[in-house]
Structure formats: structure tokens, C-alpha cells
Amino acid sequence: MSSVWHITDLELTIRILLAAGLGGLVGLEREWSNHAAGLRTHILVCIGSTAIMLLSIYGFSEFVNEPQVRVDPARLAAQVISGIGFLGAGTIMRTGLTVSGLTTAASVWVVAAIGLCVGAGFLYCAVLATVMVLLSLVVLNKWEKYLMRNRRTMEVVIKIVDKPGVLGNIATKFGENGIHIVNVQMNPDGMTEVDGVLEAVVELRFSLKASQGETLIKALDTISTSGHILSTESKTFSMVSGSRKSSRHAVG
């Protein structure tokens, strides 16, 4: 029987540990950025794909010399690539016009590929891929935010008492802070009691462009203290009845 179908326990252990380390590096960045799939998820995916790759290559070595058996080391690995999609899809969320979790889904998928490389003994490729993934997640992320700072839209939801002039006042406050309104949707949102009188509530969903996040915060600070404003919410924070409340959400 050819030695190509055999692996020592030591080498197998090294590959599993290396997979845990490489997957953990990517997962640590996701964990640090407060995303849905973090350190443990990425480690488990990388170890799992490595184990499946090892099984696919070395797990059936005793059948290699059987006359009616054809060994395909890539067969189980192919199932990992197609099957990991369900886990990545679980990290993708859509809130209104905003889709988040795409980067984390991609990182889970690429960690599975790194694990397959480690399991197959393609160690240089695994390490190189890990380095490139970390560069993409850390360095390119900052560069992308800098380049796209004036092009990306932010979604803000403001609930108001349906009174004349309230929407115009909000639009004026955005304009004074250099914030461009791309789109606005108005949806009825029930009734509320104001000074003993039932008033209609309207939800305003704005798509905005701002050069800096600080300008949006400043504008919402001003708007939240205006009359007939019930609450303001954005992707990164919310203010209810004029008082700010931290509201962090996962973004790819």
C-alpha cells in the first residue's frame, strides 16, 4: 500500500492545531468587531473542514487496494464547500434597506477553505490565505470606509406625532448639518396619547448621506429634542424621548 495514503498521528495533530490557530485569527477579528460569527465559530468551522479533508484523504486507506474501489480524496471536500453556505446564510441579516453580515458569511466560507488546505497538507496556501483574509478584514476595511465615506447611505427611523410642519422641520435640521436626504418613506404607526389627547403616529424612514457619522449624531441630537418627536433610531445608536441609548448591531 502506498505511503501517500498514510499520515502519522503527530502530523495529523499538527494540522488540526494549525487549523484551530488560523481559523481563530480570523474569528478573533470578527469577535473584536462584534459580529455574529466570532472566535469559536471560525475555529470550529476550520477544524471541522480540516478533519473532513483528513478523513477524505486518509480515512479510507485500507480500501485503496480493493479491485472494485475508486478513491477520490476530493469527494468529501466538495461537500464542505457546498454545505458551508447554510452557516454563512445564518449570519446575513436585512434591516430595512440595510444588509449586514455579508463579510462575516464570506469569512466563514473562506475559513472552511483554509481548513481544507490544512487538511490536505497545502500549508503554505493556508497560511497565505489567512494573512490575506486578515489584511482584507482589518486594513482594507478601514481604507474602504475612507474611500466610501461620502457615498454610502445611512438609514434613520424617526417616529413623530402627525402634525403639520414636523417633517419639514426635520428636513431643515438635516440640511443645516450638510446631510442629504436620498429617500424618505412614511408609514402609519398607530396612536399615542399627548396631553390627554390621542394623536396619530407616523414612522419616517430616511435614507441619508452624510460626510461624517458625527454630523448625523449632531443632527439627531437636535431633532430628538424638537417638539412632536417620539423616538429616533439609526444603525449604530438610538434615542428615545430625547435620551440616547446605545444600540449596536452586526455589519460586514
From TrEMBL:
Keywords: Cell membrane, Membrane, Transmembrane, Transmembrane helix. Its main location: membrane. It is found in: Cell membrane. It is a multi-pass membrane protein. InterPro entries: ACT-like_dom_sf, ACT_dom, MgtC/SapB/SrpB/YhiD_fam, MgtC_SapB_SrpB_YhiD_N. SUPFAM superfamilies: ACT-like. The keyword Transmembrane applies. The chain crosses the membrane at residues 41-64, 76-97, 109-140. It comes from the Bacteria. This is Magnesium transporter MgtC.
